[in-house]
Amino acid sequence: MANRRPQVAPTAGRRESIDPLERAIRPPANESPEERERRLRAEEEARRISHTIDRMLREDDKERRRKKVVKILLLGQSESGKSTTLKQFQLLHTPAAFHAERLAWRFVIYLNLVRSIRRILEAIAPEPDTNGLDELDDIDSNETATIVIIGNGRFSSSIPGYENYCRRLAPLFELEQRLMRQLTDPEEPDELEATHLPSSSSSHQHRHPPKAEGYGSFTPMHRAPAVSMSDPTRSPPRITIPPGMSSSPTSPVATSPGAEPTVSTRKNWRKAFALGRNQSPKNAHSGELHGWWEDPHDPVHVLNRCAPTMSELWRDPRVRQRLAEKRIRLEESSGFYLDEIDRVTAKMYFPKDEDVLRARLKTNGVIEHVFSLPKNNEYRGVEWRIYDVGGAQSQRHAWAPYFEDVNAIIFLAPISAFDQTLAEDPTVNRLEDSLMLWTSVVSNKLLAQVNIILFLNKCDLLKRKLESGVRLSHHMISYKDRPNDYESIANYFRRKFGWVHHSYTPNKARECYVHFTSVTDTMRTHVIITNVRDIILTGNLKSSSLM
Ligand SMILES: Nc1nc2c(ncn2[C@@H]2O[C@H](COP(=O)(O)OP(=O)(O)OP(=O)(O)O)[C@@H](O)[C@H]2O)c(=O)[nH]1
Ligand SMILES: [Mg+2]
């Protein structure tokens, strides 16, 4: 075999015994005392810097090894407040990213407002004369944005000026179609796309759930064990389902098939809205875009022109009366902006944090949000992954794969919804559905070691609903003649959900942490989130030696 070692050329004369580097850094032979002192000082400084770098590298290495992941899953029915809770996590931990997205939410807010106007027009539409029903079969109920005026006196109890309102507000529904088209990616299957603002670099979306061998599909909620307050063997409490509030099939404003528009978004839906297409200059101080109001195609112009009619409609006492008669409470859905029409439709409208928290965009699929705590926090080094799932019935099959390795579940139950039905199934009472879901989650053996935190949510709406005279016992017979005040009812729900956990949990040692929440309330929710974070870290993580 050939010898591959490099051949060293023999040096002429004396053999060099010092290696070249040593020779290069050797002090000069004729060094003066001052030069020597300078050199020694420089060497000392170099040594100090080298030690500092070594120490930093060692700490960095330790930090990387210490880095652990905490996974939190947000569960609950559709509109329970999961995405709003996720927004609060973002606002608390990555406020810069949250603020950077505010402008894109403007379009969702516009859609929400237009949707509320549509619901009002549906509600005040003349009721059909049953004799004319046959002729109405021609109306395409899938048409989402066309206003179909059907006159000829076939309707009764019309609100005066109804047709006039429809005509003046018609541009809004063209705008609605346009915004929906921009939000929807025609190449993406609707069910797989998350209808949520894609977040900053710290977050990303999962189109496909992670594989979780052996998990199978999540227990169908309606086959959950029976629920009862006092006796586990008894059947679930009877909850009367109020008549559906869906609009009349003969409504002059033709509606989409669902109770709310299902809007799918592109991966980067800010791009879909082409912010900056109009070459809007950036603000020199904040770096934020401004000047969109100078773009004649910006949706704000249509809204701005329709604003006086929208306000007139919303303030019309006959309209309010009709909404009350039909038990339509727009504040429970996207009605929040109706009280703020002038502000929201102003040409230079810039959404506030609160506006973004109120913006409703249904989640399809699962959203993952990742963040770390700041360096000065005692729990730094832990990476947090929060998963926000779609809560509609058709979305729940996607939950189970995320049960693997989850450290905590935050379950949201909107307790104000005791008199409402599911948008996707008007035969199912929302509270009953929440209880069924809760039972399925707490009884799940795969989740036996997982921390469970219950948010009894929408307490602000519950208070308002009770103050307006709605009685729980009319919708939940088991409540009987107990007091109808907020304290009594909130505590009743706490006991009920608590009892379900106590009765069905496979892990009797597990504590269930319950919070009364209104997750649109930033200050209170941030206190609760911090508290939840500590519970997860001190309880769960200690036991799994993550700390
Ligand atoms: N007033 C009030 N509104 C709330 C509260 N929690 C959520 N909302 C509003 O209810 C609507 C629905 O909330 P989301 O967070 O989108 O509901 P979700 O659970 O993510 O629903 P899906 O994505 O369909 O599963 C939004 O407009 C929220 O602003 C609350 O505590 N009080
Ligand atoms: Mg959501």
UniProtKB/TrEMBL annotation:
Keywords of the record: GTP-binding, Magnesium, Metal-binding, Nucleotide-binding, Transducer
Bias (Low complexity) ranges: 232-257
Entry annotated with the keyword tRNA-binding: no
Superkingdom per UniProt: Eukaryota
Binding site for Mg(2+): T363
Gene3D superfamilies: P-loop containing nucleotide triphosphate hydrolases
Residues involved in GTP binding: L357, R358, A359, R360, L361, K362, T363, N457, K458, C459, D460
GO BP, one annotated term: adenylate cyclase-modulating G protein-coupled receptor signaling pathway
Location of the region described as Disordered in the Swiss-Prot/TrEMBL record: 1-44, 187-265
A GO term, aspect molecular function: G protein-coupled receptor binding
Basic and acidic residues: bias regions: 13-25, 33-44
Gene Ontology cellular-component terms listed: cytoplasm; heterotrimeric G-protein complex
InterPro entries for this protein: Gprotein_alpha_su (IPR001019), GproteinA_insert (IPR011025), P-loop_NTPase (IPR027417)
Designated name of the protein: G-alpha-domain-containing protein
Species, as recorded: Wolfiporia cocos (strain MD-104)
